[in-house]
UniProtKB/TrEMBL annotation:
The keyword Cytoplasm does not apply. GO terms for molecular function: DNA binding; DNA-binding transcription factor activity. Residues 5-99 form the HTH arsR-type domain. This is Transcriptional regulator, ArsR family. Pfam families: HTH_5. InterPro entries: ArsR-like_HTH, HTH_ArsR_DNA-bd_dom, Metal_resp_trans_reg, WH-like_DNA-bd_sf, WH_DNA-bd_sf. Keywords: DNA-binding, Transcription, Transcription regulation. SUPFAM superfamilies: Winged helix' DNA-binding domain. It comes from Sphingomonas rubra. SMART domains: HTH_ARSR.
Length: 127
């Protein structure tokens, strides 16, 4: 049995999901699944372009979806937490394509006897 979200939890979830609701940010997040990258590598892989990339990375930092660390003169970006990675993997699994080419998404499980499926059968969540 699923318990409905409270108003506060629904508002928090909607606010967090707003940060994902932009194509360039989704491209950046999918590039970061399972790895840490410098801005130049993110730019090369996404072809977003430096000014827009900087803006979107700033938005992702403000939303708490990416974390950074400095190594010498470079700033390296990574996904902030496992929840963010799970959401990006879920979006890639549902919408397909090349959303996360370097990080394989498990194929949906075969239906259980009787032909029923549940959402938990295809969700990939790292802990």
């Amino acid at each position: 049995m699923t318990v409905p979200l409270s108003r506060d939890r629904a508002a928090d979830a909607a606010e967090r999901l707003r940060a994902f609701a932009q194509p360039q940010r989704l491209m950046i997040l999918s590039a970061l699944v399972g790895r840490e990258l410098a801005v130049g590598v993110i730019d090369a892989e996404t072809a977003i372009g430096q000014p827009a990339l900087s803006q979107q990375l700033a938005e992702l930092r403000r939303a708490g979806l990416v974390a950074t660390r400095r190594e010498s003169k470079q700033v390296l970006y990574r996904l902030a937490d496992d929840r963010t990675a799970a959401i990006v993997r879920f979006v890639a699994a549902v919408f397909g394509g090349d959303a996360a080419p370097h990080d394989a998404i498990d194929a949906p499980a075969q239906p259980a006897p009787g032909g029923t499926r549940s959402a938990a059968m295809f969700a990939v969540i790292d802990r």
